[in-house]
Automatic annotation (TrEMBL):
The lineage of its organism: Eukaryota, Fungi, Dikarya, Ascomycota, Pezizomycotina. GO terms for cellular component: proteasome core complex, alpha-subunit complex. This is Unnamed protein product. Belongs to the peptidase T1A family. InterPro entries: Ntn_hydrolases_N (IPR029055), Proteasome_alpha (IPR050115), Proteasome_alpha-type (IPR023332), Proteasome_sua/b (IPR001353).
Length: 172
C-alpha cells in the first residue's frame, strides 16, 4: 500500500487495514483476505469519514497491490468436470477471483475504488498515466514492466533518481 497526500491519514488507514485484515477476516477464515476484499474494507472506512459529522474526510489517495491465489469452491470444481472447454464463470463464492495473480487498486479520498493494470497517483499523476498508457501492453514481461516503471518515474519526478530515492521489490 502506497499513498499520496497526508502522511498521518495514511498511517491511520494502514493501522485500520491491518486490524480489518486480521480481526475481520484472518480469524474467521484462517487466511489473509484477497486484495479486493481488503480494498473494499479500506474504501468503506474512507467513505464513512465523508458522511460522519465531526470527522474530516481522509486526505489521502491509496494504491493497494496484492497477489491473490485462485479460488475454486467445490461446486465449481464439480461443474468443471462436465465440460472443460467451457469458460469458467465467476460466482459470489469466489468473490470474482477465477485465477491467481497480481491486482492493483486505487482508493480515492471519497471512498471510491478502481482496479487498474497500471496507474499513478500524486503530483504528476496525469502525465505519468499518459506515459503508462502509451507503453503498457497485456502480457508484459517483469523486466519490461520494471523498465517502464523506472522510465515513468524518470519522466515525472523532480530530483535525482538513485538507490536512496527509489526502491524496487519483487516476490515470487
Amino acid at each position: 500500500m502506497v499513498y499520496a497526500g497526508m502522511g498521518p491519514d495514511y498511517r491511520v488507514l494502514v493501522d485500520k487495514a491491518r486490524k480489518v485484515s486480521h480481526t475481520g477476516y484472518k480469524r474467521i477464515y484462517n487466511e489473509y483476505p484477497p486484495t479486493r476484499i481488503l480494498v473494499q474494507d479500506v474504501a468503506r472506512v474512507v467513505q464513512e469519514a465523508t458522511q460522519s459529522g465531526g470527522v474530516r474526510p481522509y486526505g489521502v489517495s491509496l494504491l493497494i497491490a496484492g497477489w491473490d491465489e485462485g479460488v475454486e469452491p467445490e461446486s465449481e470444481e464439480a461443474q468443471k468436470g462436465d465440460n472443460e472447454d467451457e469458460p469458467k464463470k465467476a460466482t459470489g463464492k469466489t468473490g470474482g477471483i477465477l485465477k491467481g495473480g497480481p491486482s492493483l487498486y486505487q482508493v480515492d479520498p471519497s471512498g471510491s475504488y478502481y482496479p487498474w493494470k497500471a496507474t499513478a497517483i500524486g503530483k504528476h499523476a496525469t502525465s505519468a498515466k499518459t506515459f503508462l498508457e502509451k507503453r503498457y501492453t497485456e502480457g508484459l514481461e517483469l523486466e519490461d514492466a520494471i523498465h517502464i516503471a523506472l522510465l515513468t518515474l524518470k519522466e515525472t519526478i523532480e530530483g535525482e533518481m538513485n538507490g536512496d530515492t527509489i526502491e524496487i521489490g519483487k516476490f515470487e
